């Protein structure tokens, strides 16, 4: 249902673009979130894009460095990550959920919860060397 790709090894200060391609559901009805999980740490939300209305959300750690976007014709969401640091090293997952909530403050809370999502990709490893 979700295929994540684009991870790799990059030096600190470098950039990567992750891709998440969806299939098997109506893309426009869903929000696509990016999560990451570092060894020994909990999975944390990085960014989320509500496909239907274009609302985008970012974790504080991602603001100003990461950009989420989509190519709806390709059912694909991208996460452009710039100025990467070793603290960004993690397995990155994309997930899809029906976050059909009008309230911005509520949606801004819901997208961060892994339990909100129905489908998960397999994860792609991002390693940032110092």
Tell me about this structure.
- The chain is mostly beta strands.
- Helices cover 5% and strands 46% of the residues.
- The chain has one helix and eleven strands.
- The strands form two sheets. Strands 2, 4, 5, 6, 9, 10 and 11 form a seven-stranded mixed β-sheet that branches. A four-stranded antiparallel β-sheet has the order 1-3-8-7, with no helix packed on it.
- β4 (31-37) and β5 (44-50) form a beta hairpin.
- The longest helix is centred in the C-terminal third of the chain and has 7 residues, at 104-110.
- It is globular, with a radius of gyration of 14 Å.
- The model has no long low-confidence stretch (mean pLDDT 96).
Strand tally: 11
Shape field: globular
**β content, as a range?**
over 45%
Our measurement of the CA-to-CA distance between the termini, rounded to an integer number of angstroms, reads: 34 Å
Q: Encode the helix/strand succession as letters.
A: EEEEEEEEEHEE
Number of helices: 1
| Estimated radius of gyration | 14 Å
Major sheet details: 7 strands, mixed
> pLDDT under 50 segments (min length 5)?
none
The overall pLDDT average reads 96
Helix content: under 10%
């Amino acid at each position: 249902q979700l295929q994540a790709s684009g991870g790799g090894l990059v030096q600190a200060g470098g950039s990567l673009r992750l891709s998440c391609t969806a299939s098997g559901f109506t893309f426009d009805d869903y929000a696509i979130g990016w999560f990451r999980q570092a060894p020994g740490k909990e999975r944390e939300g990085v960014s989320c894009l509500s496909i239907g209305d274009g609302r985008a959300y970012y974790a504080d750690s991602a603001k100003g460095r990461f950009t989420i976007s989509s190519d709806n014709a390709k059912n694909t969401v991208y996460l452009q990550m710039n100025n990467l640091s070793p603290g960004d090293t993690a397995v990155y997952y994309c997930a899809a959920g029906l976050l059909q909530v009008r309230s911005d403050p509520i949606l801004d809370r819901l997208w961060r919860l892994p339990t909100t999502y129905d489908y998960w990709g397999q994860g792609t490893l991002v390693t940032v060397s110092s």
